[in-house]
Fold this protein.
Amino acid sequence: MKRILILGGSGFVGRHLRQRLAADGLAVTIPTRQTLPSSAPAEPGVRWVQANVLDPHQLNDLVRGHDTVINLLAILHGNAAAFEQLHVEFPRALATCCAAWGVQHLIHVSAIGADSRGPSMYQRSKGRGEEALQRIQGESGLPISVLRPSVIFGEDDQFLNMFARLQRLAPFMPLAGASTRFQPVWVDDVAQALARLATGPRPTYRLMEACGPQTFTLAELVRHAGRWAGCQRPVMPLPLAVGKLQAWLMEYLPGKTLMSRDNIDSLRADNVASGLWPDLSDLGIPPAALASVFKHD
């Protein structure tokens, strides 16, 4: 039985992925920082392990004995040091560990727009992470797949649901980057793609894009979110400079950060497929349209 380690398996994509892999009869390990067993749902085929994956010794112990490792760990908000640690240094350490233990396949989830010269810290760190993996693959021969999804949507996502929540609170939606284009991809399609990569032929180094079949501006997505939630508000486009001021204020609000200045910088580039790399169709997956998942009158 193939043994698969999922880093970030308790998150949005991880929840969908681990259920799919376990249903296929694979042995799945999910590390978590939370205290066990209260944080460990009873799922056949899934083993929960309490561990800090950022600790090199614990990471080494986790990787050992697994055939495939899938890295879903990422952050959307943070400073330059935090992005560097999780998007560059951690993938580098993980790949080095995988190569040392003879892991058969490392699958890394990056992002559309990953570019070491991109406009935001998020995009630049994602790009440098890919470059680090490519170097290690060349030095060690470790088989690596990199999947670049556009923004991922689903019933429990943090993207459309955020804009729905904001529209419940405000009479209108001030929106920076209103004309930025996205190709949102369904979380189940991303999970299916990762499962097929995990069970398919091993590559040397493979880069793939995961995008939905339709392109929307951010303003259109916000309107869709409002309609699905039954609280659509008028959208008021803002210049990016004003949006950064708005985001700066939001960074200091209590609770979880909803929008940061770095998020606004990411909106300087469209979040759509380049067409230069294989996509979901190359894995035999017809991507679901947004309206087929979120239906409204």
User: Anything to note?
Assistant: The chain has a mean pLDDT of 93. The longest helix spans residues 80-100.
